[in-house]
Write a structure and sequence with these properties.
The chain contains 16 helices and 22 strands. It is α/β, with parallel strands linked by helices. It folds into 3 domains: about 120 residues, Rossmann fold; about 250 residues, NAD(P)-binding Rossmann-like Domain (Rossmann fold); about 40 residues, no CATH class. The strands form 5 sheets. The chain has a 9-stranded mixed β-sheet with strand order 10-9-8-11-12-13-18-22-21, sandwiched between helices. A 7-stranded mixed β-sheet has the order 3-4-2-1-5-6-7, with helices on both faces. A hairpin with a 5-residue loop joins strand 21 and strand 22. The protein is globular and about 80 Å long.
Length: about 500
């Protein structure tokens, strides 16, 4: 009988991360056969590590040895800048590996072990954009040791990554809150696998299914969970879809957030971090308007907080690879042969990797002050077209030759560029890299009046039945407060 081929694995980088992956691969013998390390360090080339040869330099891989097209490569140089990652990827792509993976940034593993389960497929932001900031997780998560931590929207992109990184924080309990059972099931299962594989520290993981919109429930659950820290990530956020469901956006994002804030104040939560978005600045869409109001609600709650409480928000732009974002869309379009669709050749967005954004949010949660308004330094905006072209190249194709790119025009609620702050917010540097502070401009009286007007639209009131779910009434109210909103009154 012919012998089944066991895929070969090449680890790029013979440093501490690469050596840890080597130990794991050789110990379990399930992932494939480790063939060699590839490295540029002349002091390592020609030697062996745990019986595995170190070959190099990386740029000469094709001339160093032959390999099967079924083999895999793992880039295990978490401190490498994006320019170096791009060079290495180019070499590996030309060598036609069946799969190329990369370890997470140094911010996630510099204080702990590197594990094969932490590797992921390489994406365009590993090559485009700025170099991620390096954060010592153990140092920045010290404030969470022994604490009970709640993550709302724990099944989402940011919420789930916060949960992964929080495994290294020494929290006693990690509550995964969400209203979608499938997404909570998946992150709960993943975290337990990570723990089993030795990632992070022991923490009791507790999935919680519930609705932010249920005010009585939120007060009950916050009282009984006895949370010390809350990271509020949950929100309806898909812009074109939310433009078609504006009342649901306000009901969930605004009143759901208010319920959680009020319940957290009463339950004496020590620290509360709201995740916000650049779309909250000069809001152009319903989602942006809802998050603007959430920021205002946060600052209003902070003014009511006790001396030992700290309520703050952290604002940033797009994250690469989130559900419903362009990267999964482009990947799906490419898998079907294209074309890749881009709204406009000049449209730009601010991008950050999910792990980096999450690490900075966790850091802000520890160093932030009550009434704190913070902004992540997103670097320069990136053209969506550049990302589309890079997605095509990463898969070994040539843009416009092998795969076409089609321009479809801006969708409802979208704009050519986003803004990170208003002039009145006066962003200032903090002593923490890539974390800026803003001057909050929330006005409590105006906020209260606005919520009073919006409430009968979202929650049925017997004395105002005509307002319930009335989109035109919602539009008229929001338009008086947000002049930049792209909405048309009288569409129903």
């Amino acid at each position: 009988m012919p012998q089944t081929y066991k895929k070969g694995i090449y680890i790029i980088g013979a440093g501490f991360a690469g050596r840890m992956l080597s130990e794991e691969i050789q110990k379990k013998k399930l992932f494939g056969q480790l063939i060699a390390f590839l490295d540029d360090n002349p002091e390592k080339i020609g030697k062996t590590i745990d019986g595995v040869p170190v070959l190099g330099p990386i740029a000469h891989f094709s001339s160093v040895l032959r390999h099967s097209s079924r083999d895999e490569a793992i880039i295990a140089i978490p401190s490498a800048p994006k320019e170096r990652i791009a060079e290495i990827y180019d070499v590996l792509a030309k060598a036609q590996f069946s799969r190329i993976r990369i370890l997470p940034s140094v911010s996630q593993i510099i204080d702990g072990d590197a594990h094969l389960i932490q590797t992921r497929e390489i994406n365009p932001l590993d090559i485009l954009g700025r170099n991620p900031v390096r954060i010592s997780l153990k140092e920045s998560l010290g404030y969470l040791r022994g604490k009970r931590v709640l993550i709302t929207g724990a099944g989402g992109s940011i919420g789930s990554e916060l949960a992964r990184q929080l495994l290294s924080g020494g929290a006693s309990r990690l509550y995964l809150f969400g209203h979608g059972e499938n997404s909570i099931y998946l992150i709960d299962k993943e975290l337990r696998i990570l723990q089993k594989e030795g990632v992070g520290e022991a923490a009791t993981i507790i999935p919680v299914i519930g609705e932010l919109k249920d005010r009585d429930y939120m007060f009950w659950i916050m009282k009984n969970l006895k949370c010390d820290v809350v990271f509020h990530c949950a929100a309806y956020k898909h812009v074109p879809l939310m433009e078609e469901n504006p009342v649901a956006v306000i009901e969930n994002n605004v009143f759901g957030t208010k319920n959680l804030l009020d319940a957290s104040l009463k339950a004496n939560v020590e620290r509360f971090v709201l995740i916000s978005t650049d779309k909250a600045v000069k809001p152009h869409c319903i989602y942006g308007a809802s998050k603007h109001l959430c920021e205002n609600l946060l600052i209003d709650a902070a003014k009511k907080a006790k001396k030992d409480q700290a309520f703050m928000f952290v604002r940033f732009g797009n994250v690469m690879g989130s559900r419903g974002s362009i990267l999964p869309l482009f990947s799906a379009q490419l898998a079907s042969g294209g074309p890749l669709t881009v709204t406009d050749p000049e449209v730009k967005r601010f991008f950050m990797t999910i792990p980096e954004a999450s690490s900075l949010v966790l850091q802000a949660g520890g160093v932030g002050k009550n009434e704190g308004a913070y902004l992540l330094d997103m670097g320069e905006a990136i053209k969506i077209l550049d990302i589309a072209e890079e997605v095509i190249r990463i898969q070994g194709y040539e843009p416009y030759k092998d795969v076409q790119i089609e321009f479809i025009g801006l969708r409802k609620g979208e704009r050519m560029e986003e803004f990170l702050w208003t002039d009145a917010e006066e962003p200032e540097k903090t002593k923490y890299e890539k974390l800026l502070s803003l001057k909050p401009v929330a006005k409590a009286n105006e906020l209260t009046k606005l919520l009073d007007l919006l409430e009968p639209i979202c929650m049925y009131k017997a004395d105002k039945p005509e307002l319930y779910r009335n989109q035109n009434a919602l539009y008229k109210i929001l338009k008086t407060h947000f002049q930049n909103l792209d909405i048309k009154i009288g569409v129903l």
